[in-house]
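ok so i was messing around last nite and threw this chain in just to see what happens. nothing serious, just curious
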Amino acid sequence: MSPLYSCSLCQNHQSFPAFVILYKHIRSIHRNDMLFNIRCTLNITCGSVYTTFESYRSHLSRYHRDLLNDCNLSILSTTSDNEQPSSLLLSDTAISQDEENEHIDEQEIDDEDELEMFQDTRSSENNTDWPLFTGLINEEDNVEEFTINSFAKHYPRFLLDLREGLLLPQSIIKSIASYFTKMISTLFKIIQNQAAQSLTGLLITLEDIMKLISQIQALMSDIAKNEHQFLKRCEDYFGYVAPIKIKLNDQDHYGYYIPMKQSIKNILTKPDVINYLVDNCNDNITQAKNDPDLMLTYRDGTAAQDNPSLKIHPNSFLIQFYTDGI
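result:
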């Protein structure tokens, strides 16, 4: 019996006898859904979530084309005298599948053209002075034993910093180069540590080195496999707190709760943050004393406290705009 494929985008999770039929259903019904969100579970190596039909289609055409080319659809037998020959049904399916393959190929070409246009728009030089990673790793040299866990911590940190930048100007390229230079140094220290534990002294076999490199390669692939794995590492190493997904209604509308209290607590527990805040307050007090033209009633909030709207709506949020006449 052929497996059934269900549509996770439908409220009733409609089932289909072949994946190519499910794909056509998603393309026709859900392609332009505002809340398009689907996870690929076709095999154990997948698991990524796609929020646009184009990205989902691109993934299928690259890794699951055999399912899109599957024309051996399950045909329900019937005893009706008007039943069409199975060869005719398969012929019609093959024709429609040929059209589908042509559409996929054309869409791939369009995607490549779109990617080139996007890269052209991002080609301008960004002069932001991005930090190097050398200081970060050097600070931890004396307090952390160099093991596989060291690499597991530094690599997601690298991805996290790249993600914050988004673009890749020359300054970021320099930052990437500096990071991998230090990662090679870290790898050498891991090998040194392995050799020190070896029964043959400071000698380590080529087989052990290859095993170590294979572990690191598997670790890198696992960290960057999908969003879930990446965010899990950020939670483990950096205290990342993900927004909580809240279902708003039966139409699959969702909101996201950001735990502000916990976020502020994490900020205030970071080293030097309190000192920076105190220094900033002291600087503001000093500047206020030296500048008699500052509008103290607005700056200190006394004007807002006397605003008549607060008497009617005490929980209202008041935003004040003013100019200094310059």
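not much to say yet. The radius of gyration is 29 Å.
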